[in-house]
Every structure is written in C-alpha cells, then in structure tokens.
Amino acid sequence: MEDGENWLTIVQAIEAVGKAIVLSQTKPTALAKKRVNGLGDLIEPLQEFVKKHHPTASQVEEDFKDLLEEVRQVRNAEVHTGASARAAAKIATTVGIYLEDTLMATSGAEKNVKAYIQKDVVRAYVWQNLDECRRQMLIHSFSYLPIKVKNRWKMLSDANLAKYLADQNSNELWKQRVECARQKGLKVEPAKEVKQTDSKKCALKKMDGKAAIITEGENKDLVGIITPFEWWVCARLCQLGIFLIVKTCATFPGFWLQ
User: Fold this and answer.
1) How would you write 50-103 as a 3-class SS string?
2) 205 and 251, same domain (yes or no)
3) Looking at the domain assignment, is residue 186 inside a domain?
4) Fewer CB under 10 Å: which end of the chain, C or N?
C-alpha cells in the first residue's frame, strides 16, 4: 500500500509544532539566525514542551521520548511504503496525540465542549432510505446520525438500525425510507443536548454515555455533535495533521514567521 497511512503528513505536522515551539522561545532579534534542519533539531524542544505542559507528563514523558526518537529514525529511512509505513503511522499518530493533548492543555480549551465537537455534522433525513443512512455511517465511521423528526432532534444509532433489520429479516428493508421504518418499529432516540460552554463534567453527565448534539437559535439549528470518544481522541488520522497545525497557530502566533 503506497505511503501506508499517509504518515508523512503527520510527521510534517509534528515538525511544524516543533518549529512553532522553537520560534515562540526565540527573541525576534535572533529569529534570522535560528535554523532548524529537521526533526533531529526539534526533539529536545518537543520533549521539554510535553514535560512542562502535558496533563500527565510524569506518566508519558519516557514513552514520548522513545516514540519521538523512532519517528526521527523512520523519517530518515528510505522505505516509506507498505507495512513499514503503516507501523510508522501508528507511532507518529501516538506522538501527535501526545502533542495535541499538550497543546489543548496550554490553551485551556480542553475544559469545555467547544474544543471537542465535530462541526459540519453529517445527519440523516426522514426521506432517506435506510441504505443511504447505513452508507453514511460506514463512510464516516459514525455510530450515530442526528435526524430531525417533527421539529425535534433525534438520534439514529447503528445499533438500533441493525436491530430493526435483524428483526425484520428482509433484504428489501434497505429500500425503506426512515420515516416508514420508524412507523414500523425502527427506534430513534431523543437527542441529548449540551452547550459549547459546558464543562467536561457537566457535558458527560448530560450525555450519560450517549452522543449529544449542539444547537443554536430559536430553530435549534444543528451546529455540532459530540460522543464520549471525542473526549479522548479529538481527531481521526486523516484530520490529525491539519488539527495540530491549527492548534499550533492558535497557541503560538509566531508559527507564521517560519
């Protein structure tokens, strides 16, 4: 598989974070003399950053150091395809998650819902057939799809969809529209709601182990969704590089000077 998991994008994001840290610690008058020639020059600043700011630094410090060194070695290797690339992606992703947690801790953003919600929400509609809903869940790896039923937000879950199809035992059901299936027994649960300003503790209590939506305005327009998973892993592999760079720019304005 060419470029296994697009791991190089993640490594470049890690390097961008390291450069931003170096720039943030360098006086403006010395920027012109500051040269960073690769990940090797960034290992020490990255280690110090995690050691100083990560919420559980004492527990992750050694692991982060070893993983970062592995990333450096693979970065300099010639083979970046197939199984080796997939293994490299796993290591780089772990490093990226450590950095992401640290960046969020320094910004204070990890304290409320706003930092974790998925925007540009993928939702279902009552006029869609079940096959379309299933396809959306599979493509995006989602377990829940918000759906508006009679002006009230509900949640269509993969578990309830699977149960309905199993109980009916008919391949023709995929062609049913959601509204028709709902009237025949497909369960859609009332959507739990949280506010963007809610703290972790408050939001998790409201969610009670389920996904929740975020709405705004009198019409309750859907602006985001959050699941318990987002509290621990904020970005999928394909989003990680962009997310890290955005967080870096917000935390270290000097990032743009590189």
Assistant:
1) HHHHCCCHHHHHHHHHHHHHHHHHHHCCCCCCHHHHHHHHHHHHHHHHHHHHHH
2) no
3) yes
4) N
